[in-house]
Design goal:
Blueprint: E1 15-20, E2 26-32, E3 39-43, E4 65-69, H1 86-100, E5 105-110, H2 112-123, E6 128-134, H3 148-156, H4 159-170, H5 192-204, E7 218-223, H6 232-240, E8 245-249, H7 256-259, H8 261-275
Parallel strand pairs: 3-4, 3-5, 5-6, 6-7, 7-8
Antiparallel strand pairs: 1-2, 2-4
Length: 276
């Protein structure tokens, strides 16, 4: 459902623009697909801009008006960061929908974007018509943490070694696209301070006690070889979110939704069609 209100900023499909959030911070937003189609908000992972969705969003655009925005500290959304959380990013997402005149949208969040999506569905339930949570976690002490050696390697390795290790967490050896072409390995324009802020946002997320409040139709998807965010978190989310569905993709790592897009995307589209 889409409506408009006086003073909102209009962004045509296929265009990028900048809006001013509640605290004066400027957020870069991007819109694609048919203007009259139902809205699909796409939320990327930690320390990534809307480019995370390059090559993926197009598969949704025959059916949806896709909406993305650059998280604070990424892409075209730069400035004094202040106190940030998955809840504050969810509030930013709600403001993006406001500025576009979108009363409610389907929401597809991956990794940290799945954490933000949870908070959007909790804090702004009327804005979320359906929810897809990919390779994400409820956060907090009940969640299943990544193996310690994975975290230690991510913190210790630098430069090309770090990129190669991260690439192996996202993709299987069968994936033939070179690391330099991946859109999932981080926004390399971010400062050390911005990257650290995003790490804290992900680490501090904890929606466990509130997940039972989510009333949007929910699909939880995960790869069963995800070492960045262990697949056991999918089962936890499934148990906590009433009426949710879960689909596990064999062999999938953290970037399974890109590597296995020919299988994953049609399942998401089918779920969203049924949910509507």
């Amino acid at each position: 459902m889409t409506n408009t209100s006086e003073g909102e900023q209009q962004v045509e499909s296929g265009e990028s623009s900048t809006i001013t959030a509640r605290d004066g911070f400027e957020l870069a937003i991007q819109v694609g697909g048919p203007a009259e189609a139902p809205a699909l908000l796409l939320l990327p992972g930690q320390a990534n801009s809307h480019k995370w969705w390059d090559g993926l969003r197009e598969d949704f655009e025959p059916e949806f008006r896709t909406v993305t925005f650059d998280y604070r500290g990424t892409g075209g959304s730069r400035g004094e960061l202040g106190e940030l959380s998955t809840a504050s990013f969810a509030a930013d997402a709600a403001e993006v929908l406001d500025h576009l005149g979108i009363a409610s949208a389907a929401v597809y969040g991956t990794s940290m974007g799945g954490r933000v999506a949870q908070m959007l569905a909790l804090d702004f339930p009327d804005r979320v018509s359906a929810l897809v949570l990919a390779c994400t976690t409820p956060g907090g002490p009940h969640s299943v943490k990544r193996p310690r050696r994975v975290g230690q390697s991510l913190a210790r390795l630098q430069g090309k070694e770090h990129t190669r290790f991260l690439y192996g967490l996202f993709y299987t050896p069968d994936w033939s696209v070179a690391p330099r072409y991946s859109k999932l390995l981080g926004d390399d324009t971010m400062s050390t301070q911005e990257s650290a802020a995003h790490l804290r946002i992900s680490a501090n997320h904890n929606a466990w006690d509130r997940l039972s409040e989510i009333n949007a139709p929910t699909l939880i998807i995960h790869g069963d070889e995800d070492r960045m965010n262990p697949v056991d978190n999918a089962a936890l989310l499934h148990k906590r979110i009433p009426g949710s569905q879960v689909r596990i993709f064999p062999g999938g790592r953290h970037g399974f939704f890109e590597e296995f897009a020919e299988e994953v995307t049609p399942e998401i589209l089918a779920f969203l069609a049924a949910a509507s």
